[in-house]
Amino acid sequence: MLNYDLSPFYRSTVGFDRLLSLLDKSVGAEQNAPAYPPYNIERTGENAYRITLAVAGFGENELSVESRENTLTVRGSKETSAKDEKRDVLYQGIAARAFERRFQLADHVVVTGATSENGLLHIDLVREVPEAQKPRTIAINTVKPARTIEAAPEKQAA
To answer: Residue 42: phi, psi to the nearest 5?
Structure first.
């Protein structure tokens, strides 16, 4: 795996700190990316998206979804009860560990809802671009040429 040092760019650029920080995080995230829980990101419409996380074994009260600024954070934590402590598990293949997964959202992307069904957590997102920032078509007006006055033909001498 290649490692990139972006520190020279920090010294020679102004106003790109956030972009360089995101690049730093993404380069480091590839090496340390948590694989749990697995997830899908799909486009469900022109400006609509859905993130689906596999959260088998977690109840709705054990999951939390939070959107702050441009970051979506999904957390899950299992509550252990006295009944669970008495069990003697011979093999545990179903992960029940706590997790926190973060997603960077683009500008104007908002969370519209979250549902949990059949061990999957679905988070619906929509990109709502403000009217002032939407592209608009500008009509092109044609300018009529100015009316020209032609010189009267000269009278011929008879």
So the answer is: -135, 155
- Name all domains of the chain by residue range, CATH numbers in brackets: 1-33 (no CATH), 35-131 (2.60.40.790)
Is pTM beyond 0.85? Reply is no
Distance CA 63, CA 60 (A): 5
pLDDT at residue 105, rounded to an integer? 86
Where helices occur in 13-113 by DSSP H, the ranges are 17-32, 82-85
Token couple for 69: 């600024």
In order of 15, 24, 27, 28, 50, the CA distances from 8 in angstroms are 14, 12, 16, 17, 37
Burial of 4 (0-12, 13-18, 19+ CB in 10 A): exposed
Residue 7's pLDDT is 62
pLDDT-wise least confident of 27-31, 106-110, 149-153: 27-31
The DSSP result for 9-26, as a single string, is HHHH-SS-HHHHHHHHHH
Q: Contact 109/49 with Cβ under 8 angstroms?
A: yes
Report yes or no: 51 and 41 within 8 Å, Cβ to Cβ: yes
